[in-house]
Structures are given as structure tokens and as C-alpha cells.
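Worked example 2:
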Amino acid sequence: MNAPETQQQPPQQSTLEEQVIEALRGVYDPEIPVNIYDLGLIYALDIDADGVVNIAMTLTAPGCPVAQTFPGTVECAVKCVPGVNDARVELVWDPPWTKERMTEAAKLQLGLI
């Protein structure tokens, strides 16, 4: 009697969106030691069929000293994700960022809960 053949499922690959989120989690706010995704600075993330990522994000304060350069840092991090052909980051200030946008993990990391 032959042993039944077992089919191995290929490891499930994460979606492009999940990979982009992981890349965003690798970018840290210059003033707060928490990544920008868990800080709640990413307001919108859209990936089109051509692998173009559009991000609407804010900063913790409008007068942030990196306001001019930080979007480029975020774009570079996202463009490094395989499958991403381009990335565009738009800084938005409405609604203003508040601590309520932070994930539980970020709040815990900063001792806010």
C-alpha cells in the first residue's frame, strides 16, 4: 500500500500592501522613537495595478524641521519594496495628527498606557 501523497502548499506570500506597510514600519519619526505607521502618520495608502503607491501622510507638528525632506525619505523606503514601481507621498495637515491615531503598540512603547 502506497502512502498518500501530500501536497505542500507554497508559503503564503504577503501582499504588496503588507510589504509596503512593513517598509513604512521601518521609517521612524525623527523626534519620537516610533515608526510612522504605528504613530498614525499614514492617513491613506493606495496601490494601483501598475505598482504605483500613493501615500497621504502627516507629521506630528506642522513646524516639524524635516517637513521638506521627510516625504522623500518615505518615498525611498517604499520604492525599495519589490513590486513597487513608483511612490508618491503627499503631506497633509487636515485632520491634524493626535495621539489617538497611534496604535496600542506605539502607546505602550511610549508609556502612554
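Residues 4-12 have pLDDT under 50 and may be disordered. The two ends are 60 Å apart (CA to CA).
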